[in-house]
Amino acid sequence: SVYAMAGGSLPHNDIAINLLTKLRPYTREQGCRINMADAKVNITPQIYRYPDLAISCDERDKTALDALRYPKLVIEVLSPGTETLDRSEKFREYRSLPSLEEYVLISSTQIEVEIYRRGEGRLWLYTTYQAEDIITLESVGFECPIELLYEQVILETNAGEEEERG
């Protein structure tokens, strides 16, 4: 099964681009591969997902042509229509990958980032970041102020009003 989700909102897209812009030079320096939403992650021989961003530093993924198989970091920008899926089924699938060290969920409606980090055994550690926090992606040794993700992003408030950040 291949699962693709199309038609993300402009805030969703802007957040993903902001993060890609910050991460790309850094991951390139480390010899890692970063892919965006059109690139597949192979969960099992029958299941593929299209995360907003995925990073692999595994040698086997550096020459891959069809899908990443060993991501260490998967990032999903949450949308109201996909949030439940991202938090449940997709997280369950991604965490079945032995290579995965972090799963990141970024809100597109408020300034908030949630990170699940693999601990010992089946333990996953949960950290949340909000306005003025410095986000740490331990799997790739990257840090940045949360505001950089929301630079020039118009967020929808729960009243349906738009609010520009950055």
From TrEMBL:
Domain Putative restriction endonuclease, chain residue ranges per copy: 2-145
The organism of origin for this protein: Adonisia turfae CCMR0082
Database matches in SUPFAM superfamilies: Restriction endonuclease-like (SSF52980)
Statement: the UniProt record of this protein carries the keyword Transferase: no
Organism classification: Bacteria, Bacillati, Cyanobacteriota, Adonisia, Adonisia turfae
One Gene Ontology term of the molecular function aspect: endonuclease activity
UniProt xrefs under InterPro entries: Nuclease_put_TT1808 (IPR012296), Restrct_endonuc-II-like (IPR011335), Uma2 (IPR008538)
Keywords from the named record: Endonuclease, Hydrolase, Nuclease
Any one Pfam family match given in the protein's UniProt record, by short name: Uma2
Protein name: Uma2 family endonuclease
Source superkingdom: Bacteria
